[in-house]
User: Fold this.
Amino acid sequence: QIGANAAYANGPFTVGLGYDKQNGTNVALASETDTRTYAGAKYMLSATTLYAGFMRRKNELAALDATTDLSWVGVRHPIAGKLGIGAWLVKTDVKDTPDEATLIGASLYYDLSKRTQAYLNLAHSSNDGASRQGVSSSVYTLPGGAMSGIVAGLAHSF
Assistant:
C-alpha cells in the first residue's frame, strides 16, 4: 500500500489532496488494486464552516472492476457554547451502472473536549440499482431501497 496527502491553508480557506493505492494481499492477488484519489476543501465563514469534497475510487479486482465517484457538501455552525448543528449531502455514483445513492442528514453535536464530540444524526438514504447505502457505515438497505434513521455516538480524533 502507498499513499500521500497534502494540505494547504490560507486564512479561512483549506484545501487537501490525497492518493492511496492498495495492491492485493498476497502474491496471487498482487495485480489486483484498490485506488483512491480525493480532494476536499473547507471555508470558514465567520463561525460557520462550509465543506465540500470529491473522491474517485477505482477497484481493479478479479471479482469487481468498478469506478465509483463520491461527492459531498456540508455545513457546520455553533449555536451555543460547545453545542452546534450541521447538515450534509453525499452522492455516490458507480460509473457505467444504475447504482447510485444519495444520503442527506442533519446533526446536533456537543464538544466534550477539543478532540471528543458527542453527536446525534438524523439521516435519510435513497438508492437506485443495486446500491445499498444506509444511514451509517455499518447499516445497509436492500438493493435499491431507502432508509431513514437516527444515529448517536461519540467521535474521538487522534
